[in-house]
Amino acid sequence: MHELDGRPPRHHFRAGGSKRATRGVARTQRQRRPEPFATGSQQVAGDVSYDVTFNFGHARNRINYWDEPPGAPPWQRSTGHPMCVSVTSCPAGGLLYKAIGIFKDSADLARYCHRTDARPGDIIFADIDGDCKITANDRIRIDQNGNPTYTLGLRLGAQVKKFDFTVFFQGAFDAVQYFITESGEIGNFTQEFAANRWTPTNPNAPGPRAFNRQEEYWVSNANTYFLRDASYIRLKSVEIGYHAPARLAAGLGLHDVRLYANGYNLLLLDQFQVVDPETRDSNGQYYPQQRVFNVGATVTF
């Protein structure tokens, strides 16, 4: 980031193969602060040795200056907030309606400001600007997105005589994922949605009613109800190995033989619970990470 005479830089854009640059189209300042940290330790005592390696990352960015269009409400301006550029990680440009509940019945409809097409079982959108009309001005800016603020990794290793063992954990925190399925005539609902959905006989359900495609306003308009916590801790890999006796390896004409067994993606701790929190597909249409097990041998000639 560079500044001239204390003023934000002017970026020049070239489009369509033209050699002429357009001046003053956009002026931006961005600030990104990655803060990685790593440490490790190794100890040896006789036939036993172990090692521990830990790494931690903290990454954030912020728009210090941005030529924003005039007229946007203060709660929608992006200056001073993180960048929002990826459709998969940052839906609707980071502007979402704030969901504050579910209309239980007609009494709820009379109690809250709402759209003219709202009915019981729909998601309640907050009237942010206070005019009792749910419009685009009621969207709020969401600072969180699919890029985690904190990441970590932990590797533990040990060796006891001819046996060795390693385990690796990875984690990410302060990330969200927008998730809503294509359901109704086009597809099914998740078990979680079906179990928590509003019905006339279950008006106190925590979730909205069933919907078809994008016919409902709370499906076609991005809102915070469908933002899910994408933080997680994953047991990424475990491996155990055994070095065969030197006499046996020599009898096979080898210098060393190591037998091993390992597994990947063995355990996941998260609050999402529906799809893998590392996915960045808002409809869940992706190939999930597989749990893999291997057994084998490594030989040294």
List the helices and strands and how they pair.
Layout: E1 10-13, E2 22-32, E3 37-45, E4 48-58, E5 61-66, E6 95-97, E7 99-102, H1 106-111, E8 123-125, E9 139-141, E10 150-160, E11 163-173, E12 176-178, H2 191-196, H3 217-220, E13 227-229, E14 232-243, H4 246-251, E15 256-270, E16 292-300
Antiparallel strand pairs: 1-2, 2-5, 3-4, 4-10, 6-9, 7-8, 10-11, 11-14, 12-13, 14-15, 15-16
Strand order of the largest sheet: 3-4-10-11-14-15-16
Question: Could you state the order of secondary-structure elements as H and E?
Answer: EEEEEEEHEEEEEHHEEHEE
Work out the strand percent: 35-45%
Terminal CA distance: 54 Å
Supply the number of helical segments. 4
Number of spatially distinct domains: 2
* Low-pLDDT segments: 1-28
Number-wise, the strands total 16
**Main beta-sheet annotation:** 7 strands, antiparallel
- Class from helix and strand fractions: mainly beta
Helix content: under 10%
- The backbone outline, from C-alpha atoms, is elongated
Using only CA atoms, what is the Rg? Answer: 27 Å
Q: Mean pLDDT, rounded to whole units?
A: 86
In short:
The protein is mainly β and 301 residues long. It has helices spanning 106-111, 191-196, 217-220, 246-251, and strands at 10-13, 22-32, 37-45, 48-58, 61-66, 95-97, 99-102, 123-125, 139-141, 150-160, 163-173, 176-178, 227-229, 232-243, 256-270, 292-300.
Protein described:
By secondary structure, this protein is mostly beta strands. The chain has two domains: 31-60 and 144-175 and 230-301; 91-141 and 180-228, no CATH class. Helix content is 7%, strand content 39%. It has four helices and 16 strands. The chain has helices at 106-111, 191-196, 217-220, 246-251, and strands spanning 10-13, 22-32, 37-45, 48-58, 61-66, 95-97, 99-102, 123-125, 139-141, 150-160, 163-173, 176-178, 227-229, 232-243, 256-270, 292-300. The strands form five sheets. Strands 3-4-10-11-14-15-16 form a seven-stranded antiparallel β-sheet. A hairpin with a 2-residue loop joins strand 10 (150-160) and strand 11. The chain is elongated. The two termini are 54 Å apart. 17% of the residues are buried. Mean pLDDT is 86; it is low at 1-28.
